Input
Amino acid sequence: MAVKTVTVLGSTGSVGTQTLDLLQAAPDQYAVQALVGNRNAALLAEQARRFGARCAVVADPAAYPALVAALAGSGIATACGPQAVIDAAAMPADWTMAAIGGAAGLPATLAAIRRGVSVALANKEALVCAGDVMLRAVAEYGATLLPVDSEHNAIFQAMADGNRDRVDHITLTASGGPFRTATLEQMRAAPPEAALRHPVWSMGAKISIDSATMMNKGLEVIEAARLFGLDSARIKVLVHPQSVIHGMVHYSDGSVLAQLGSPDMRVPIAHTLAWPGRLATHAPRLDLAAIARLDFAEPDDVRFPALRLARAALEAGGGAPCILNAANEVAVAAYLQKHIGFLDIAAIVDHVMLEIGGQPADTLEAVNALDARARDAAARRCADSSRPAA
Ligand SMILES: NC(=O)c1ccc[n+]([C@@H]2O[C@H](COP(=O)([O-])OP(=O)(O)OC[C@H]3O[C@@H](n4cnc5c(N)ncnc54)[C@H](OP(=O)(O)O)[C@@H]3O)[C@@H](O)[C@H]2O)c1
Output
């Protein structure tokens, strides 16, 4: 079997480290090209040595001296800064994991797409904020986007028979997060420590807060619209606390194809890594008899307004998803720093979307300008929200 060359963007994060776990279990099949992180130079250097990477890159120049020192004498090339991250993504590799968190991952994800190879997409925010730009690049350069999000990976697998024109609608499941049964009063008072305690998935901080507000599901509705060419009305969301069924495709003949599996990100990551083949993983096997029951419920729009806001952004089109995403990133960071409350996150996103309104986002320049404007507006709003009431 030919060795596949791979690059992992965001290798020090939750998705990145799980990707490397899979590579480590099949060392004869994969050769690591570039590994990219932001600040965690110690882990990045350890990973680069362990996998014999060709290069290791940190985005944050402040982390560069530590990276250089840790890789001295290894023969592994090092670099730092935003352009070095893009250059690493543009290096030849058969498969790239795009797992940088947030819109910050857009330039590198785009650079990987422009190589016209397989890009495993975890970085949903890039597709949300720059959908037109990314999908144009996929078509122009002949790249293949392989969805890593467990729900989208499920839909991708359930659509594998090719009858896309016979799809009536799809269902993305949602665990409901740590506040699935919480009251609004409990949510209002919730500290980040509580919101970070996800009942099912172990993930990075930003996506964990997005799961608690259900903005994550909102971003995923937009992601699904882009990936599968469906409008908002044909993308349903169902709360399913056990997270065993990840996604369902409802066909026009009444058949429903679902993908099931233990809630373990190594399963969808392995699917994208080996696609169109399959790779063995050590992820826990699904034991339906032990689980015994599966529950489902409609999402609650009142306690989780973020989902409604994301749908509104998708339906408005243009730059609305970019504004939604940027405002959310700023508000989540402010919440994690305890500058604003949990319920302020969605309120700030709502406010910024109303303040900026309809704007186009069909070029990278327009996306960047809108993203910056929305971040400014959200930062101002966070500052207002953090002021004690008079
Ligand atoms: N975690 C999951 O289970 C999961 C599931 C589905 C989708 N996703 C998506 O996958 C992406 C990553 O999520 P995560 O949970 O893995 O996040 P995470 O644990 O916070 O990791 C983020 C990674 O991106 C790196 N990074 C951050 N800013 C960067 C920049 N400007 N340039 C280069 N690298 C940068 C971080 O480096 P440092 O470590 O050095 O800071 C880290 O390697 C997100 O888009 C998320 O929505 C995650």
Remarks:
- The domain at 317-390 is CATH 1.10.1740.10 (Rna Polymerase Sigma Factor; Chain: A).
- The first strand starts at residue 4 and ends at 9.
- The CA atoms of residues 17 and 207 lie 16 Å apart.
